[in-house]
Amino acid sequence: MNRRLRDAFRGKASTQATDAAVSRGMADVLAALDTAVDDDTALSRIYTAAGTTVPGATPGQAAATPAGAPGTVPSRRRLALRSAAAVAAALSAAAVALAATGLPGTRRGGPERPAVNTAYVVKRVDRALDAAEPGAIAQMTITTRNTATTSGQSVTATAEEWSYADQWRAVTYTPAEHLLYDESLSTASVYTVVSYQTRTWARQTQTSSPAAQFADRPEPLPPRRELDGITEREREVLTLVGRGLSNAEIAASLFISAATAKAHVARLRAKLDARDRVQLVIAAYQAGLVPPSR
Amino acid sequence: MVTVTAGPEAGALPAGCGGLGEVEFAEFFRAEHKKLIRFVMAIGAGGEEAAEIAQVTLFKAFEGWDGIRAPRAWIRRVAVNELTAARQAARRETPAAALPDAPVPVPVAVAVELTEEARQVLAALAALPPRQRQVMAWIIDGFGAAEIARELGVSPESVRQSHAKARKNLGRLYARGSQR
């Protein structure tokens, strides 16, 4: 009895220790996010994305944004936002003028807050540079707005600066960056950064001539095997089986338990009359679920 | 278990009061943005992916703000759906035979530097079965069993059971982790 009690207590103590460890670890995650994520920038991205299409919700919008070129920027960003989850940030870095949107709630402090946190933009550039490969192709677009007076109402010109370089490091020395740093400009006219994008691509190692492309073209595929009576979910599982994943790996990537993955595979085997996993893989290839090359 | 009721419960403002709703949204955003990223990370996404999911989710919340009654629960439910959808979309993409005309963009990394403890917790959570992991993620964010049950469409009792199992499993995972 005594022993059982003690064991019970020990069990309780260890769950409490686990709880404490979890809450400490999760607090750490939050602290790390605090330094890595800028709420204001993320919020302004949402305002910009919604700005063009939410009618009536943005009373200050019409006055601050003239019709024409600047209007296209939010819609492009909106597209990027929409597909962001799937494409993993095609336009990954963006800092958008808070003041330009004219929305309430975008600023809290005094009215003279700079339109764009330039320090943040520079930080994002640095990060982009660090993340990219040395030989990568880079493209950076910075849209600036030249405001004649400090009233914030009159917008005189919008300029887009493009830079294109095949060395990442070169990007840091484009005129656009001078624009970010140059504070002497603010005396005559105020440049505010309206939007900012960087894109990087891994360098294409081989230049492919048309002939080489022709030679690379795959042979016409044999007729596909029909998969009768297979559900959509089973088709997904079959695709993963065809890529050589284990049941546990399939479970992880489909957010299901290992037992469920196993059940799917067993059902597939029965439906496709496959003796073993190898025959399932063959079926996946014959059905065209997995491309033959690569 | 502390049940935190969301601040902007009165989100259903008349259409004319868009301004007030936006102030409200901004406050909600500041309070929840990072927590939502952490929630998605607890569910099993990396830092960059979680930030993207949170962005998309909060954008949807902004669009439908007036109709959302319990925004804290709403964004978490939607974020889980977004994550699942993103994973499925990524899986359906078939690799192209040749390089496309436009080169594929490389995402810029969000530098989330995690402490050892944070990494351990996330790894332990990732090793849990999906349902237990999900329940843990909700509980970490301060939701009660009844609320979680409503959001996940199961009974409160099974939420409590999943939680108990998750704690037990986490304890085991920690024991194993510290031995290594």
Can you tell me about this structure?
The complex is a heterodimer of chains A (294) and B (180). Chain A has 14 helices and three strands. With 294 residues, chain A is mainly alpha-helical. Chain A folds into two domains: 36-201, no CATH class; 227-286, Arc Repressor Mutant, subunit A, CATH 1.10.10. In chain A, strands 2-1-3 form a three-stranded antiparallel β-sheet, sandwiched between helices. In chain A, helix 2 packs across helix 4 (69-87) and helix 11 packs across helix 13. Chain B has 180 residues and is an all-alpha fold. Chain B contains seven helices and no strands. Chain B has helices at 18-43, 47-63, 71-92, 116-126, 130-140, 145-152, 156-179. The chains are: A mainly alpha (294), B mainly alpha (180). Chains A and B meet through helix 1, helix 2, helix 4, helix 6 and strand 3 of A and helix 1, helix 2, helix 3, helix 4 and helix 5 of B.
Number of strands of chain B: 0
Q: Strand portion of chain A, in percent?
A: 5-15%
Shape of chain B: globular
Helix content of chain A: 40-55%
Given helix and strand content, the structural type of chain A is mainly alpha
Low-confidence stretches of chain B: 1-18, 96-109
Largest chain-chain contact? A-B, 80 and 78 residues
As for the number of domains of chain A, it is 2
* Rg calc of chain A: 28 Å
User: Which structural class fits the helix and strand makeup of chain B?
Assistant: mainly alpha
Q: Count the DSSP helices of chain B.
A: 7
What does the overall shape of chain A look like?
flat
User: In order across it, which strands form the biggest sheet of chain A?
Assistant: 2-1-3
Helical fraction of chain B equals: 55-70%
Main sheet record of chain A: 3 strands, antiparallel
Output the radius of gyration of chain B: 19 Å
Number of strands of chain A: 3
β-strand amount of chain B: under 5%
CATH-level-2 architecture of the largest domain in chain B = Orthogonal Bundle
Chain-averaged pLDDT of chain B: 75
